[in-house]
Amino acid sequence: MPATTALRRVLAALTALPLLVLAGCGYGSQAKDDDTVQIAAGAKKTDGLDSVRIGYLGNVTHATALVGNRQGFFQKELGATEAKYAVFNAGPSVIEALNSGSLDIAWLGPSPAVNGYTKAEGRNLRIIGGSASGGVKLVVNPDRIASPKDVEGKRIATPQLGNTQDVAFLDWAAEQGWKIDPLSGKGDVTVVRSDNKVTPDAFRSGSVDGAWVPEPTASQLVAAGGEVLLDETSLWPDEEFVTTNIVVSQEFLEEHPKAVEAVLKASVRTNAWIEAHPDRARAAANEQIERDTGKALPDEVLGPAWESVRVTDDPLAATLATQAGHAVEAGLLDEPDLTGIYDLTLLNKVLAAEGEPAVDDAGLGVPE
Q: What is the pLDDT of residue 19?
């Protein structure tokens, strides 16, 4: 199949997924009854905006957004401009919301960002900051898989066709010498695209033998009797790779830079607070997960999941370029032109004010 045809089919599948807006967390909705928006007396609106619409996924790899929401960091920096939150179940839905103008800023994985940017021919979003590294593992049924070579012939779940973990597994499988059709998932290993919410049940039932998944799903599988066969951090130089970035619609960035800067300042200060208060931050993240999803994570899941994710202001741009290369090699993406996908100007301004070093865009910044 020509690469361009494969690309169209993948992008169509990625953007067809429905948006999930949870009760109390939708566009323009108020927080739950026992949560009130705390706006300091005398605070002024940022950029004259009534609100800024912020999106994220309700999982541990989006810890900055979870904690920043729960602890009020975003609201504090936005002043009298209300921080409104929307919670999603998949990255492509975030792209859909950004493209439609119903979302301003979001926490997003690298593959959806690359796919969305490529499909829009570089006109819809910018990556403006980093958020998380790590937190992705291959967890397997130890009765069926004892070593990497045992993965051949087995059924391995990934969250979604063409998502960040799907691409990573296909790349790793290719390095083992196995052939897999990237679209159907059939080959020397069968790739089962399975929503993270249902993967633990599929694992318990034996319908999949393992899964390459982010946290907290990986720790949920371990709690269900699985064993970690591989931590993806071991495959990367310096054991770091981008898991979550901050993106913004280009229109919002151009029209409301002060609001974007406020959100970035809140993100940087949230990450600093997480590193200084890890136990309190973990509890805050779990409280927000409970409010967003209706169910908190048990300690045996939250503990190891939290330990495997590292928050970072650095978007680790070079690793995103590598991940895009993996998608190309897997046949899921034409060679993309990612020039301009990053604009780290405001982040580096915030970092300088906080006494922190600047971060690099790996040559993929907006051309001057």
A: 34
φ, ψ dihedrals at 105, nearest 5°: -135, 145
- Structure-block tokens of residue 75: 């609201």
What is the DSSP-derived secondary structure letter of residue 154? S
CB atoms inside a 10 Å sphere around CB 74: 26
Q: pLDDT tens digits for 142-161? A: 999 999 999 999 999 999 88
Of 117, 55, 52, 112, nearest to 79 by C-alpha is 52
Give the amino acid at 301: V
Reply yes or no on whether the pLDDT at 288 is more than 70: yes
- Got the DSSP string for 107-122? EE-HHHHHHHHHHTTT
3-134+240-353 in CATH: which number? 3.40.190.10
Burial (CB < 10 A; 0-12, 13-18, 19+), residue 41, is: exposed
Domain 136-239: which CATH number of 3.40.50.720, 3.40.190.10, 3.40.720.10, 2.60.40.420: 3.40.190.10
Whole-number mean pLDDT of the chain?
Answer: 89
- Its pTM stands at 0.86
The count of other CB atoms within 10 Å of the CB of residue 91 is 28
Please name which of 361, 346, 308, 286 lies closest in space to residue 138, comparing C-alpha atoms. Answer: 308
